[in-house]
């Protein structure tokens, strides 16, 4: 499985960004997809999960502000981030794993991208 993120950048508080993750070499509907982040000096934090059945799960810190979705035609995972806060500043990673591993936190998934930086000021 190969994952390539894009869409990060710098934005003012209250602004929005959409992260993208291009996925390849995986079997659709057998992998859960997710986003996690890591801020300097902090532990990795799961942000959002898209389960095999299309169910979603969000960290309390982003509920109501972030939305995870996928484009099955283009094999792309998205993270729509609205009302961004300085605390959202972090490197954001796309992650994936087989269905049996999806109950664990996203930062433990076996496949991940190289990350894309989000800075909120």
Structure description:
The N and C termini lie far apart (34 Å). β5 and β6 form a beta hairpin. The protein contains no helices and 11 strands. Strands 2, 4, 5, 6, 9, 10 and 11 form a 7-stranded mixed sheet that branches. With 121 residues, it is mostly beta strands. The radius of gyration is 13 Å and the shape is globular. The model has no long low-confidence stretch (mean pLDDT 94). The protein is 0% helix and 50% strand.
List keywords for this structure.
121 residues, 7-stranded mixed β-sheet
Q: How do the SSEs run, as a string of H and E?
A: EEEEEEEEEEE
Let me know the largest β-sheet. 7 strands, mixed
Distance between the termini: 34 Å
Mean pLDDT: 94
Structural class: mainly beta
Low-pLDDT windows of residues: none
- Our estimate of the beta-strand percent is over 45%
Specify the number of helices: 0
Write down how many β-strands occur, each being a DSSP E stretch of 2 or more residues.
Answer: 11
Helix residue percentage? under 10%
Rg calc: 13 Å
